[in-house]
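Q: Second attempt. The first request was missing the SMILES, so the protein and zinc ion are both included now.
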Amino acid sequence: MAKPRIYTTSAIVLKYRNYSESDRFVTLLSRKMGRIEGFAKGVRRSTSKLTGHLELFYTVRITLAMGKNTDVITEVQILSAPDRINQNLNTVSCALNIIELALNVSTEGTGNELIYDLLEKTLNKLNTTHASNSAKLLAYYQLKLLSISGLSPEFKTCVECGNILDEQDHLYSAHTGGIVCPSCAPKQAGPLLNLSVNTIKVLRFLDAEDMTKIENFSVPKEILTKTIETLDTHIDYHIDRKTRSRSFFKAFQ
Ligand SMILES: [Zn+2]
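A: Got both inputs this time. The predicted holo structure:
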């Protein structure tokens, strides 16, 4: 269906780049329309009605008019301004990782509703929870996003032979997309990651439970770091993009 000349939608700000002296190109994820880009003229002038309305992580109700190359943002109403995210370096680095992943997997047009709902829910939780829960929420988001994208890693049975895994340390293979049992491990072509039995339990828990249970779930820091490293490896291999914010996150662990 063709876009109307003027349209209004709810959307989350994923990215922007400044242009000229006072303008900005903004990329957003709309629940109904998927990824959209708009031109915000004069947004960086203190007198603009758009000033402070198009910040990263904000959910807005936005009106755009079709332009020749890029649509022009004419009205913005803030629906959610999760400004607490920016008060903690660890939280903001997790949130940057989260929106960058949304950018990588979302598409223009319909079919992005689940990604939008997950993103909105995770950003709201990051804004209200204690900063020490940020990395757990990042891992939760990564697992749910992989599931939505049909790219879930396999942690319950051997991804090669299908046998149920014994409760012990195992090896994860990015190439095959999950854990391989001791019999199948020697046949793997790509690199393997060692996963302790406790890391495997954490991955399964994060995959199965809801956000509130995860918020109250205590995970030793080294296991959480390994959990995110495993998910980052899986995402790099299967989503095929390395994110700048991920290296930023690692720098502050
Ligand atoms: Zn096997």
